[in-house]
């Protein structure tokens, strides 16, 4: 490491002395030893040659910024959490309330699964059923890439609450919650239908 040249001051020393002059020190005698007031400001360099104004007929195009302007995120409608009442969920989990129907969406694409869910829920509601078990599966795990595993894991499981909140199914469904381990655990949902 090289020693600092004591004769050379830092480039912003004049700023420091200007600010230090506006502050009352705790001990006055330390300031008296430094000398008289702030250092003079360095001379400004002469401005560059004036630029030629653009021709009056052609408007100068605005400069494009490096980044697009900031846009606040739009308030998205959050997926409503409509869970089944705890007492009913407990009874379904323990087998005291029968499951009226089961649909397995496991292995379907999103489009197929959504259409099958709509048909099934509407048919079961028309029949008067109250409790359904919807099997979505947990999704495949990819051990080699954690981020890809998080994005691709359980898309049907992620989309089911959104589909149940859609205007076509929302009036028919009173709530949903994850199933107990005996009925499929994280890969299945209890869906409770409203009375007609």
3D structure, described in words:
The model has no long low-confidence stretch (mean pLDDT 75). Helix content is 31%, strand content 11%. The chain has a 4-stranded mixed β-sheet, with helices on one face. With 196 residues, it is an alpha+beta fold. The chain has helices at residues 13-21, 28-34, 86-94, 110-127, 146-152, 155-164, and strands at 101-104, 131-135, 173-178, 188-193. The chain has 2 domains: 10-41, no CATH class; 86-193, Ribosomal Protein S8, Chain: A, domain 1 (2-Layer Sandwich). It starts with 12 loop residues before the first helix and ends with a strand.
Summary?
This protein has 196 residues and is of the alpha+beta class. The protein contains 6 helices and 4 strands, in the order H-H-H-E-H-E-H-H-E-E.
Reading the helices and strands in chain order gives: HHHEHEHHEE
Query: In percent terms, what proportion of residues is strand?
Result: 5-15%
Q: Which CATH architecture of the largest domain is right?
A: 2-Layer Sandwich
- CATH topology category name of the largest domain: Ribosomal Protein S8, Chain: A, domain 1
Euclidean distance between termini CA atoms: 84 Å
Look at the helices and sheets and give the structural class.
alpha+beta
Question: Main beta sheet: strand number and arrangement?
Answer: 4 strands, mixed
Question: Which segments are poorly predicted (pLDDT under 50) over 5 or more consecutive residues?
Answer: none
Number of strands: 4
Order of strands, main sheet, comes to 1-2-4-3
> What is the CATH class name of the largest domain?
Alpha Beta
Mean pLDDT: 75
> What is the helical fraction, as a range of percent?
25-40%
Determine Rg (CA atoms, Å): 35 Å
Q: What's the overall geometry?
A: elongated
Number of helices: 6
Domains (count): 2
